[in-house]
């Protein structure tokens, strides 16, 4: 009886997951279909789920009417820089909080964590005034990158992961007269590669998909990221649904490739830091 109940439960759970997956995939599928057919067919009151006339014209119009290549390069550059800075500085801070004992370490760590409770919208206006009026960095790469060059969430992630690494290796390295940075570079980082990979992927995805801050801080077309540029194109070309779908597909494609090629690291990100040594 127990086996039968378990089987029924698993079948119901599988059915629910399949239905939910279909519901989740439909918008993505419709975006791809809309990007390879005429705008009139995409905007039809009763749209077809299969392309009526397959065409790459929407992609041609999107790249012809916008600075899409510049937007893609901006997104790639900003996401890459943010990934590098977050991986380096967050791993340094995570190592310090996890393995080094210094006065006030716990208090500093909890103060940092408490800042995560503050909604980002609360700090947007002071941050904007600081970046634009005080430092005069508006409409620049520095203005987009600086506020999230390192985030508290990433520090917490690396602290939790590095807490699970064996402390005995650090003591052995100190006995061999290795400096603290040498221990971090030669001992900790090689052991922390899985955690660093998860951190890098999550940071890159978040940076690529970021919209509001780049939208707020940039004025010129040349400084827009692909997400901000696509939004401006939607406002300007609200009737060209095929080109809009093509632009959305172009913006989503790198993330889809990244997810399907590195999905095991995404799964590791769910449990990272959950097991302590």
From TrEMBL:
Matching Pfam families: BPD_transp_1
Top-level taxon of the source organism: Bacteria
Keywords: Cell membrane, Membrane, Transmembrane, Transmembrane helix, Transport
SUPFAM superfamilies: MetI-like
Membrane spanning residue stretches: 7-30, 71-97, 109-135, 141-162, 183-206, 241-262
Main location: membrane
Subcellular localization(s) per the UniProt record: Cell membrane
InterPro entries membership: MetI-like (IPR000515), MetI-like_sf (IPR035906)
Start and end residues of each ABC transmembrane type-1 domain: 72-262
Entry membrane topology: Multi-pass membrane protein
Family stated for the protein in its record: Belongs to the binding-protein-dependent transport system permease family.
Stated name of the protein: Sugar ABC transporter permease
Organism: Paenibacillus helianthi
């Amino acid at each position: 009886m127990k086996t039968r109940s378990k089987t029924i439960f698993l079948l119901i759970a599988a059915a629910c997951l399949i239905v939910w997956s279909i519901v989740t995939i439909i918008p993505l599928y419709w975006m791809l279909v809309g990007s390879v057919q005429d705008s009139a067919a995409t905007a039809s009151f009763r749209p077809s789920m299969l392309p009526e006339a397959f065409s790459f014209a929407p992609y041609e119009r999107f790249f012809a009417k916008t600075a899409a290549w510049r937007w893609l390069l901006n997104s790639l550059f900003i996401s890459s820089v943010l990934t590098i800075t977050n991986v380096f500085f967050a791993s340094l801070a995570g190592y310090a909080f996890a393995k080094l004992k210094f006065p006030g370490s716990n208090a500093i760590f909890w103060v940092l964590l408490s800042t995560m409770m503050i909604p980002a919208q609360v700090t947007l206006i002071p941050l904007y005034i600081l970046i634009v009026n005080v430092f005069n960095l508006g409409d620049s790469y520095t203005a987009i990158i600086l506020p999230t060059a390192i985030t508290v969430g990433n520090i917490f992630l690396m602290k939790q992961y590095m807490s699970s690494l064996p402390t005995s290796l650090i003591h052995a390295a100190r006995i061999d007269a290795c400096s603290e940075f040498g221990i971090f570079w030669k001992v900790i980082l090689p052991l922390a590669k899985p955690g660093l990979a998860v951190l890098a992927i999550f940071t890159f995805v978040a940076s690529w998909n970021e919209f509001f801050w780049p939208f707020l801080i940039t004025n010129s077309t040349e400084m827009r990221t692909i997400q901000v540029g696509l939004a401006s194109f939607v406002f300007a070309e609200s009737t060209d649904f095929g080109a809009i779908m093509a632009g959305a597909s172009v913006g989503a494609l790198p993330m889809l490739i990244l997810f399907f090629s590195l999905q095991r690291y995404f799964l590791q990100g769910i449990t990272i830091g959950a097991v302590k040594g």
